[in-house]
Structures are given as C-alpha cells and as structure tokens.
Amino acid sequence: MSNREELKKIHDLGINTVSNQADSIYYASEELNGLIDEFKKQIANLDLSGSDTEVAYDVIATPDMIKGALISATSTLVERSSKVEIAETKKEHVDSLINNMVRVQSHSTYFTTSFKNVPSAGALVTLTKMQLESSEITNITLKSLYGASLKAHTSSMGGDTK
C-alpha cells in the first residue's frame, strides 16, 4: 500500500494527534524526495550521456539552498520517524535505513565526496536509492502508527484488540 493510502487510513481513524504525527512524517518524506528530484534533474540536464564523472559531484558539492534543505529534510524525517514505535520484526531494518539517512545529515562532507568520480548515471541510481529508502522508512512508520492507533481505537471502543 502506498504512503498516501496509509496516511488516509490513519486519518480515517479520526485521532487528530496521530493524524498530525502521520502528516508530519509523510510531508517530511515528500519534501526530501522532492529535493532529491531537484538534484537528479540538475545532474540529468547537465550530462545527457550519464557518463561524465564530474557533473554529479559538481552539482552536489555546490553550496546552495537545495543542499541545505536536503540535509534539513533528512534530519526532519529521521527525527519524526524515530519517535514511532516499530514492531520488532521491522525495527532492525528501519534502524538500518535510518542510519543510512543519518550519514547524509551528520556527515554532509562524506555524502558530497561519495559522488566524486562517479558517473552521472551512478549518481542518479544512488539518489534514487535514497528516495526509495526514505519512502520505505515512511511506509513502515505509517503502518506502525496505523496498527498501534487501530489497536488503541478498537480497545477504547470496547472491541477486540487482536
């Protein structure tokens, strides 16, 4: 199920605090993925062949608002997702994904230099992987929020919590 569908299920429960938390996670992920798209567009527009090994580094190493916003959006997603209790079966996987995001946030120099001498096509793959990881963190987090909220909501209504 998509992140948007998970978000709708949470809203359908009608618990405002949970809906607000889910919104903040969903929109942090959307913002991050949009910023990554900007980098991908810049790289693709500057190197149509995908083989230039300088373009991706030059784009990502250039200090600008997009890079600052990317680091900030990464931090926001990590912070908000970390507040959600994840089922033990998914926790290790989510922690691994979050650690990948933390490297971008806390080691921006490492993130930037990881694109040095990388063909543009490879950089696009790396950035797409980052988007997939962001979306996966969001999806698992929203599913966990929904499951816990449904259980609490059903319990408060006097229903079966199993």
Please specify the SSE layout and strand pairing.
Blueprint: H1 3-13, H2 16-46, H3 55-61, H4 65-82, H5 88-106, H6 108-113, H7 120-156
Helix pairs in contact: 1-2, 1-7, 2-3, 2-4, 2-7, 4-5, 5-7
Description:
This protein has 162 residues and is mainly α. It is 80% helix and 0% strand. It has helices spanning 3-13, 16-46, 55-61, 65-82, 88-106, 108-113, 120-156. α1 runs parallel beside α7 (120-156) and α2 (16-46) packs antiparallel against α4.
Spatial shape: elongated
Mean pLDDT: 89
Strand content: under 5%
What is the N-to-C order of secondary-structure elements (H for helix, E for strand)?
HHHHHHH
Number of strands: 0
Please outline the major beta sheet: none
Helical residue percent band: over 70%
SS content category: mainly alpha
Spans of 5+ residues with little confidence (pLDDT < 50)? Answer: none
Compute the separation of the termini in Å. Answer: 21 Å
Q: Quickly count the helices.
A: 7
Rg computed from alpha carbons, rounded to a whole number of angstroms: 18 Å
Summarize this structure as a short list of keywords or feature phrases.
162 residues; mainly alpha; 7 helices
Outline of the structure:
The chain is mainly alpha-helical and 162 residues long. Helices cover 80% and strands 0% of the residues.
